[in-house]
Amino acid sequence: MATTKAKSTKKPAAKKTTARKTASKSKTTVKTVKATAKVTAVKSEKVGSNKTKIVSEKATTGKKCNPVKEFFARKGDPNENILTIFKDTKIIGAIIGEIIGTALVTGVALTLGLFNPLYLIFAYTGITAAVFALSGAHLNPTITAGMMASRRVSAIRGILYIISQLIGAWIGFMIVNWFYQAGVASGNIDAASTMLPTLTAADGVQANTEGYSFFWTITMLEFVGAMIISFFFARALEFKRGAFTFGAIVGSGVFLAMLFAVVTCSNFLGIQDNVFIMNPASAFMYGLLPASADGFDALMSQLMPMLVTYVIFPVFGGVLGFYISDFANKLQHKELKA
Q: pTM for the full model?
């Protein structure tokens, strides 16, 4: 009986000890879960910053956020600069993609002609989809300027892209011009009747009214066209469902801009010349760089109107197109995406 009582008295003590161990384990588990939750929150916050999504200051700190500061916040890689960009070999592929893509775009513009915008939508869609995975398929300094101004890409990447686009436009022009000169030299085509599209200086364009200058008219045409193209590009960035979808949206924007320019020039202004191009890289290598004059003053007087019309104002239009897209996102209370 004594042994039985001893055993029975030990059992409650064992139960109490087990209960204490279970309680301590549960407390430890709760602490571990809380610590894991904190670490997970920190990791998710880091991942969110790497994905370059803008998080409202009010949601994280409880303070009122500055809408202007948030609007102009960096949406690209915050760690990308001149010291880090060349550590990844992907930048070389991006540069090659911009050179090839811009060369093809310039060649299409010079061969199909800008007065056939229906062809451009298919060509631009294919070219954009082909190089999208390499560089994002800017293929136009107005797009790159808008990406830089909206802080989607770093300054060093934007500069490298613009240099690549100029090189690509020059290569495209040289290839098309070589075939054209070969045809003229062989005598199979008449140089007077078969000519490459001419990018006429805006201050020299004349319609039925003798002496009337269309300088600001053509300048605003380039400005609006660049704004349309950059706006479509910014909207295409919001989808990111595939290269073909991206290329189709961008190609549709180019088609709409060119169609607007064609109808405006032919129906409203009475201009049949090729007075628009909406790509400063192609304009610089095709219309500005080959320019010549008797002296420096004459050369600058010839180049400055072309720079204003085909480079400066289109760049402003490209930046404005991205800002309009971002402003529309803010009105819809959506996060800005890279």
A: 0.75
